[in-house]
Backbone:
């Protein structure tokens, strides 16, 4: 079995917007959601792409909230939008063959941080019984599966900043091979806790102002949060039920640098991109847009740019939407996959916001500040994680 | 009048379960978890809340054997008596 797989529903909940329409409006306008970091005066860096005004009570009952860390709430909200968007009518057979495959780097950090503070600082002796089920990184996938009664293969990938891309790639391959008939795939992350932010501060890669990937005066990454989910199904099933199709998820490629725990490698990044093209049956010249990993750090951007040059010697339009929604770690790949899918669907390539002057070391066709009208045939979305684990998704217009 | 043990138990359960006033009023000293629709996961959250309310330590065996308000009130009474 070697079925083509398409995206028939998307949901997004992040700093740029609490729905796919809000999200796309922000990206199309080049509007960055990066602003003052709220709630953490003890942290040296002062900017982030936080979701403002998250109202858990608008989405969940008080009893449900008891069981849901913020990252699982985000996952459920994005999944609800994606499922509604795809217009599926569940049958028992489809429920049995639908899986939920998610990415999360840090899991239930808010729950963990609060409870550890109670233990270490408040000297509390009793721990709330729901800390374990709230904290586990697969809580988002499990909660989505429970909500819709989905009993197909479901799991969570945790590969730092590539988590969601690894998850979506696995969903693609499992549907292609006939092990799943449908998947809800994506990622979610809620990394804003004092302990976690201090850890990022220690790494000294967070920008003191904003995120401007591939620019000469870039100063680092900006943390983001949120979730995005995609509904994936075989092309024939989507056509048979008359579903709206955003794009084909044509292929995926993965590689490991085996090089350095934080320094990226041109070879590893290029290898994952080439494997994604091969898996998708695409030539480099068919690809008109790269949604880059583009963190805005000194280490990532030139390495990624040289990998893009190597894979696309004739040039390709590149942007990093992290300049708008921040780096949402284990959710980043999913948010960027939705950005890429919507770019193909709308014939509009979102820009890198906050762009000043391109770094000479980043020799790419950067889409600066303003979206570019261009109906490209295919696009890729890259994630290159700490630990050197790379995953790239390739999408094609239908 | 100060709250009795059973009143405190009912208050803790109602809060833990996010019951509204009507549902809270329906809890009696003889209500069982089954009648109240409280499952095992709810049960351990109630045990945690009771430990905090009464500042006692409920042993695992006792926590597992709780079936309703009467068990809890009796057990808490014993633990409070032991505490002195």
Residues:
């Amino acid at each position: 079995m070697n079925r083509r797989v398409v995206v028939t529903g998307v949901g997004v909940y992040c700093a740029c917007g609490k729905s796919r329409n809000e999200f796309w409006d922000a990206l199309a306008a080049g509007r960055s959601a990066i602003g003052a970091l709220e709630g953490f005066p003890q942290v040296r860096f002062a900017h982030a792409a936080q979701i403002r005004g998250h109202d858990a009570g608008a989405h969940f009952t008080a009893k449900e909230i008891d069981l849901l860390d913020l990252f699982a709430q985000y996952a459920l909200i994005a999944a609800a939008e994606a499922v509604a968007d795809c217009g599926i009518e569940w049958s028992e057979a489809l429920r049995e063959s639908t899986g939920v495959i998610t990415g999360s780097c840090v899991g239930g950090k808010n729950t963990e941080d609060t409870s550890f503070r109670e233990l270490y600082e408040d000297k509390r002796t009793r721990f709330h019984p729901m800390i374990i089920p709230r904290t586990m990184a697969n809580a988002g996938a499990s909660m989505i599966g429970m909500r819709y009664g989905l009993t197909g293969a479901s799991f969570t990938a945790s590969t730092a900043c590539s988590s969601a891309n690894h998850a979506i790639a696995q969903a693609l391959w499992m549907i292609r091979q006939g092990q799943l008939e449908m998947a809800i795939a994506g990622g979610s992350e809620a990394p804003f806790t004092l302990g976690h932010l201090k850890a990022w501060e220690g790494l000294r890669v967070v920008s003191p102002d904003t995120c401007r990937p591939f620019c000469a005066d870039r100063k680092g990454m900006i943390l983001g949060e949120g979730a995005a989910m995609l509904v994936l199904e075989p092309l024939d099933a989507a056509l048979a039920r008359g579903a709206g199709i955003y794009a084909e998820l044509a292929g995926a490629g993965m590689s490991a640098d085996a090089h350095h725990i934080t320094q990226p490698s041109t070879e590893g990044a290029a290898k994952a991109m080439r494997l994604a093209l091969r898996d998708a049956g695409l030539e480099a010249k068919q690809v008109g847009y790269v949604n880059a990993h583009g963190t805005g750090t000194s280490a990532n951007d030139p390495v990624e740019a040289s990998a893009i040059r190597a894979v696309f010697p004739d040039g390709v339009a590149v942007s990093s939407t992290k300049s708008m929604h921040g780096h949402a770690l284990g959710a980043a790949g999913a948010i960027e996959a939705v950005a890429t899918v919507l770019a193909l669907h709308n014939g509009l390539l979102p820009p890198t916001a906050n762009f000043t002057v391109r770094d000479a070391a980043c020799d790419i066709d950067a889409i600066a500040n303003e979206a570019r009208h261009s109906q490209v045939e295919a696009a890729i979305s890259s994630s290159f994680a700490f630990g050197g684990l790379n995953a790239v998704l390739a999408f094609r217009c239908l | 009048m100060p709250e009795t043990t059973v009143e405190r138990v009912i208050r803790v359960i109602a809060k833990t379960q996010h019951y509204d006033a009507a549902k809270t009023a329906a809890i009696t000293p003889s209500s069982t978890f089954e009648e109240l629709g409280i499952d095992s996961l709810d049960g351990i959250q109630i045990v945690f809340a009771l430990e905090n309310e009464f500042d006692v330590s409920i042993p695992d065996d006792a926590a597992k054997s709780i079936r309703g308000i009467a068990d809890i009130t009796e057990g808490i009474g014993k633990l409070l008596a032991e505490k002195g």
Summary: Chain A touches chain B at residues 61-63, 66, 126-130 (CB under 8 Å). The two ends of chain A are 21 Å apart (CA to CA).
